[in-house]
Amino acid sequence: MKMAASQGAVGPATALQGQHYLNVAHWNPGVMQQQQHPLHTARSLERALEDAVCSGMLNISGRKLRDYPGLNYDLTDTTQADLSKNRFCEIPPEVCMFAPLESLNLYHNCIKVVPEAIINLQMLTYLNISRNQLSVLPKFLFNLPLKVLVVSNNKLLSIPEEIGKAKDLMELDISCNEIQVLPTQMGKLLALRELNIRRNCLQVLPDELSDLPLIRLDFSCNKITEIPISYRKLKQLQHIVLDNNPMQSPPAQICLKGKIHIFKYLNLQACRLDKKTDTLDLPSLGKRCLPQQLTDRYLQPCLSSSCLCYFSKHTFILTTMSDSTFRAPYCQHLFVTFSRGNQKDFSSTDPSFTMRRKMEHLREEMEQIRLLRQNLESRLKVLLPDDVGAALMDGVVLCHLANHIRPRSVASIHVPSPAVPKLSMAKCRRNVENFLDACKKLGVPQDKLCLPHHILEERGLVKVGVTVQALLELPSSKPNQLSTI
After folding, report:
1. Residue 479, preceding bond cis, omega within 30 degrees?
2. DSSP state of 142
3. Lowest-pLDDT range, 343-347, 348-352, 424-428?
4. Which of 21, 22, 205, 402 has the fewest C-beta atoms under 10 angstroms from its C-beta?
């Protein structure tokens, strides 16, 4: 309302100021600029061209020019040219003859084609031709020694394969176009640090980008559903922007948690495919090996399993997976504490006994998880994926189980849809809380109820199994009596 009121008062105020200016010699910036615009513009343009002759920096930005004004000036020694915010329909041929030119800014013009004469600019390292009307990037453009190329907000449908020749390119911005596929030759841009492919029509990310030393990657506002597993090799990546994509792998819940969780998911997926343990290729965690004497003395009982050793502060972590017992989604960690200052403490314990006990405990947990899967699949007549924790995390399956035990015990269930295949964390939490409330009302003892984070964070499948088992063991007459009442 305030904005509307101020806009409504503009007309009378302007009229009064104009009348005042005609009667009295009063300085008014708006009126002065309107009265002296042609002369002022011409004089300032001449001054800008004269300064460019002396300094080698041409700045004629924001003057609504349609024709190049520097025909009568010797600007061949220009190293920086700013022609942005004008109305040029083409790159002036005179500018393409500036041999020493290093930076060229053509932002916000009406340019439709890049002329072949631009190849004369063999010292050009910065080119900004964004917010124009380009539909094609010419192949010869990548024969220039460009380090920064900005071609956002155009009408590009594709990127030529010759982009692989731009060996010195460090920053590439092709956002806000209509590009559908990225060429695999982009994997040859070994100097590329920043890549912005935001707001295009991309559906797949090429695996070849995983070989680049990227620091920032922005592929938001596309149609991408999956991050390639090979992207876990991007060890120098500091910023990744992927919002407004129908992400399925990693799931949306993991993407919201940030880069660390995304990389951890990619590593786990790689382990499942390769049938190996999680190598955690994160830059913050390096893989170490135990000393040879400890390996020989204490790890002999574990030679039948696949073992990897990590060293973090004063704790050795043995990541163990037996191919005959455990599947990749359920890799577990065994911890053996080791203090640098007290290495003899190991002599007082039997490592083989400790590790056998750990292995037996893990087998018991695996058996309880198998029982949880069996109970859910038999009652609901569904087939759950290998990763039971991920399948239960949104609470949908558990709410259906409660309604199966007693109809309408969970009145409202948030379920995914084709448009939004993954629920938000808030909706997942509501489902889980509704399930636990239904369990309380149905009579599950308090000591057998799991907590919400056991389901949402996949950290307590055994406790979830206890809750489900207690729910299924409730007397069949109790729900009927409650419903009758």
Report:
1. no
2. G
3. 343-347
4. 22
Farthest-apart Cα atoms in the chain, separation: 104
Residue 209 is given by DSSP the state G
**Within 13 Å of residue 262, how many CA atoms lie on the same side as its CB?**
25
**Three-class secondary structure assignment of 331-373:** CEEEEEECCCCCHHHHHHCCHHHHHHHHHHHHHHHHHHHHHHH
DSSP bridge pairs for 320: 307, 332
398, two tokens: 């558990």
Residue 325 has pLDDT above 60, yes or no: no
Residue 42 domain-assigned (yes or no): no
The whole-angstrom separation of Cα 228 and Cα 208 is 10
The CATH number of residue 257's host domain is 3.80.10.10
The total of structural domains in the chain comes to: 4
Q: Are residues 271 and 294 in the same domain?
A: no
Neighbours of 125 (CB within 10 A): 18
364-372 CB contacts, 8 Å cutoff, 24+ apart: 365/332, 365/461, 365/462, 366/325, 366/326, 366/330, 368/461, 368/462, 368/465, 368/466, 369/330, 369/461, 369/462, 369/465, 371/465, 371/469, 372/461, 372/464, 372/465, 372/468, 372/469
- Is 345 domain-assigned? yes
d(CA 52, CA 45): 11
Prediction pTM value: 0.52
Identity of the residue numbered 334: L
Range of the domain at 101: 52-133
Whether the Cβ atoms of residue 154 and residue 135 lie closer than 8 Å to each other: yes
Residue 132 clears pLDDT 60, i.e. is over it: yes
19 occurs within a structural domain: no
Would the pLDDT of 61 be above 60? yes
| Residue in 249, 203, 242 with CA at minimum distance from that of residue 221 | 242
Q: pLDDT value at position 386? A: 81
Tens digit of each residue's pLDDT (9 = 90 or more) over 282-317: 444 443 444 444 344 343 333 333 334 433 333 334
Q: Is the pLDDT of residue 50 over 50?
A: yes
- Mean pLDDT lowest for which of 217-221, 226-230, 297-301, 442-446? 297-301
Distance of CA 475 to CAs 373, 381, 446, 481, Å?
21, 21, 17, 10
> How does DSSP classify residue 445?
-
- Confidence check: pLDDT of 350 > 70: no
Buried b (16+ CB within 10 A) or exposed e, 70-94: beeeebeebebbbbbbbebeebbee
Q: What is the CATH number of the domain that holds 448?
A: 1.10.418.10
Report the alpha-carbon distance of residue 397 to residue 26 in Å, rounded.
Answer: 76
SS3 57: strand
Sequence letter at residue 270: A
pLDDT top residue among 297 and 184:
184
The better pLDDT of the pair 282, 473 is held by 473
